[in-house]
Amino acid sequence: MKTHIALAFLISALLVSTPFIASAQEMTKQDYLEKSRKKTKAGAILLGGGIVLFSIGGTLMAVSGLDQLTSCIGGNCSSGAEDGFAAGTVMMWVGGLSVVGSIPLLISAGKNKKKAAALSFTNEPIYLPKYAGNLPRAVPSITLKIRI
Length: 148
Hints:
This protein is 67% helix and 9% strand.
């Protein structure tokens, strides 16, 4: 019984604290381009940083692993080589996760760029003389805007 009351209280607190959005704002093409540019920049930084961390970690692992192997062959294993090996492993993991995390950002940036260049239906004006009769002043048109 206590769990039902606690669950009801939790659900009601969640519903009260959640702001309700009446209507979603429509994004313009400029908004999509700006969003795409920001995500591309963030994805490139994550990708480049991840590659650098991964390579430094791999180098550190290789050097520390070689030191650990040579010191253990002599009979006295040093703990300094093990610390470098562990640090290299952590750097490789962080770099690899950074590279994997950049992929969704770059994909999303491409989708936003495609949305910005999508076809749109608008009423384009017709430039006719002022007294040309009972002709429409605008016609439905398909437009394609590509930023160069």
